[in-house]
UniProtKB/TrEMBL annotation:
It comes from Medicago truncatula (Barrel medic). The keyword DNA-binding does not apply. One of its GO terms (biological process) is DNA-templated transcription termination. Pfam families: mTERF. This is Transcription termination factor family protein. InterPro entries: MTERF, MTERF_sf. The gene is 25495073. Signal peptide: none annotated. Belongs to the mTERF family. Transmembrane segments: none annotated. GO terms for molecular function: nucleic acid binding. The lineage of its organism: Eukaryota, Viridiplantae, Streptophyta, Embryophyta, Tracheophyta. Keywords: Transcription, Transcription regulation, Transcription termination, Transit peptide. The keyword Secreted does not apply.
């Protein structure tokens, strides 16, 4: 017969198995007493309602016993903690650590206290009903021994208390304990946890590395659109559980919190041998070039790797050789996209390759795109086709297509509606589809930017430097890269530089209107040396570049200086446009009376910068 005391599981009670001595007390149920040779079906249920609705910092708590709610006194909690500490020491834990565990496992302690209350209440009811005294719980029995008895009866040998002290909830502790109940003693579990945390969750792991990990996880959760194998399903379930918690994926930046989430979803890892399984796996990852301090990123991003045998891991790594150039740097791809080792991703690679080959994109270019944007590996071909069709409508096909894909592979991950919004942005400025296609082919990254945060702000910048609205499309057509330039640093610096050399805002606007690419030139490497040569060596006024801003596009050493030497040697004066815009034959015919450019005289010391 079973004793009806809030039971969720019934554990056979073997009196001789108790690690402590209980004297002068007997448990009897319908004349069935535990002995050295017979089992008595005696079970106790631990009610969790109370524990899930209290905080660990409260010194007073309430426990349920039957239909009664009573206050647990400080004395009960103090005595209970001492008893738990004693119990843990009997399991081989040091006195100091046992006290720490007992102090940090309040739900476990409350569970034991509540169970004692249940037994006391039951025994009291038996006495009130004049039941056989042999069937009663000794109400005068030492309180610590009662706690010790219940702790032993629970059967987890202190593992629940230890897991809770690590930050696991009581229910999570029970789930984890199911996997390790017979595989570990409490002491071996403590040693295993300590070793795993040192190997996989080192405190020296930098915040930057965790930020990259979290960024990559968010990307795959956003862009993955294929059927998943079992390992990937389990991994995504892990991500979703973490995401649902307070703090979301940022929890993974905390060593202790990341470990708890990791073990809750993959408790089998606690069963792995450190020497025969975990260490060899980590050695393989290091041998293929992954730095030791980045291995935690790989494991947290794709935990099933740790459950694979060494042969399977090696096979999956070698399969990456299908991607051109990856064999020279496995680590780079795996750090960006650890999921590349999964079955579903490796199979989808073949699908992506076949689709892009069908639209005339060579494998070499596809592999380049994948190495730059490995999220493509998790993108379904149906989704890829939607974007390729959008490009085709703008005339971007064949060679132009694979140039776009290689330069900005992230465009293939876009939603068509987001891409079309950028197309409409250009249409509203007066561009037709042909010119939009040219912009896409020349600077595809524009189409992956935000209209409000990036594109519109560049239009406003041009307006601020007095480029009229009518000329803005012309400026963009000549230099679409302007739309992805740094509006806070790069562009303003060019304007400030021109103003420092004496040009007005109106003159700068005129230069930009005539030749907008000058806004992309380096001040130190292009603008400054060419302007200094113009003023110091050629003795020309700065404002000559306002009339011909394309001057900055010519090579100083190969064109500007040689032609200046020819003109100076013949005492010829002409505009910058006449000097530089002509090809060699035209220049020779115009200024030298021959049909071919002559060898230029060497520079004098006066002409040198």
């Amino acid at each position: 017969m079973l004793l009806p005391i809030h039971t969720n599981c019934f554990l056979p009670l073997v009196y001789a198995a108790f690690p402590h001595k209980i004297q002068d007390v007997r448990f009897m149920v319908n004349n069935c007493a535990p002995t050295f040779t017979k089992y008595c079906q005696f079970g106790i249920h631990y009610s969790y309602y109370y524990y899930h609705h209290t905080t660990t910092r409260r010194r007073r708590s309430y426990c349920r016993s039957g239909m009664r709610d009573t206050v647990v006194s400080d004395w009960e909690l103090q005595e209970g903690r001492i008893a738990v500490s004693i119990f843990l020491q009997q399991m081989g834990v040091s006195a100091e650590e046992s006290k720490s565990i007992a102090s940090n496992s309040p739900a476990y302690l409350n569970m034991l206290v509540e169970s004692v209350r249940d037994l006391e209440h039951f025994s009291s009811s038996m006495l009130d009903a004049n039941a056989n005294a042999d069937g009663a719980f000794n109400l005068n029995f030492n309180y610590r021994d009662k706690i010790l008895h219940i702790a032993a009866l629970k059967g987890d040998n202190g593992k629940l208390a230890y897991l809770e002290s690590l930050g696991f909830t009581l229910s999570s502790s029970m789930n984890v304990a199911r996997y390790i109940s017979s595989a570990h003693t409490l002491l071996s579990l403590i040693n295993k946890v300590t070793s795993i945390k040192q190997l996989l969750f080192p405190p020296a792991h930098t915040t930057h590395h965790y930020q990259l990990l979290i960024k990559n996880i968010r990307l795959i959760m956003t862009h993955l659109s294929i059927s998943l194998d079992e390992d990937m399903q389990h991994t995504f379930s892990f991500f979703e559980k973490v995401q649902a918690r307070r703090g979301g994926l940022n929890i993974l930046a905390s060593q202790d919190a990341a470990f708890r989430c990791f073990i809750e979803s993959f408790p089998r890892i606690l069963l792995l041998s450190l020497n025969n399984h975990i260490s060899p796996t980590l050695d393989i990852l290091q041998n293929i070039g992954i730095p030791a301090d980045r291995i935690p990123n790989i494991i947290l991003a794709f935990p099933p790797i740790l459950l694979w045998n060494v042969e399977l891991l090696q096979t999956r790594v070698l399969a990456l050789n299908q991607i051109d150039g990856v064999d020279k740097d496995y680590a780079k791809l795996m750090l960006k996209y650890p999921w590349v080792l999964s079955t579903s991703i490796q199979e989808n690679y073949k699908e992506v390759l076949a689709f892009l080959h069908s639209v005339k994109v060579p494998k070499t270019w596809t592999d380049r795109a994948i190495k730059r944007q490995p999220q493509l590996l998790g993108c379904s071909t149906s989704k890829l086709k939607l974007m390729v069709d959008q490009f085709a409508e703008l005339g971007v096909q064949r060679k132009k297509l694979y140039q776009v894909i290689t330069r900005s592979p992230q465009l293939l991950l876009q939603k068509p509606e987001d891409f079309l919004q950028v197309v409409m942005f250009f249409e509203n400025m007066g561009f037709d589809k042909e010119n939009i296609g040219r912009i896409l082919a020349r600077c595809p990254e524009i189409f992956a930017t935000s209209i409000s945060k990036t594109l519109q702000s560049k239009i406003e910048f041009l307006s601020r430097i007095e480029v009229s609205k009518a000329y803005i499309p012309l400026v963009i057509r000549k230099y679409p890269e302007l739309l992805v330039s740094d509006i806070n640093k790069t562009l303003p610096q060019r304007i400030v530089y021109f103003m420092k050399v004496g040009l007005s805002e109106k003159e700068i606007a005129l230069m930009v209107r005539k030749f907008s690419p000058l806004l992309g030139y380096s001040i130190k490497e292009v603008l400054m040396p060419k302007l200094e040569f113009l003023v110091n060596s050629m003795k020309r006024p700065v404002r000559d570049v306002v009339r011909y801003p394309r001057y900055f596009s010519y090579s100083l050493e190969k064109k500007i200086k040689p032609r200046y030497r020819v003109l100076k040697g013949r005492n010829i004066e002409c505009s910058l446009k006449d000097m530089l815009a002509k090809n060699d034959e035209e220049f020779a015919a115009a200024f030298m009376g021959v049909g071919k450019m002559l060898v230029c005289p060497p520079l004098s010391s006066h002409d040198k910068l």
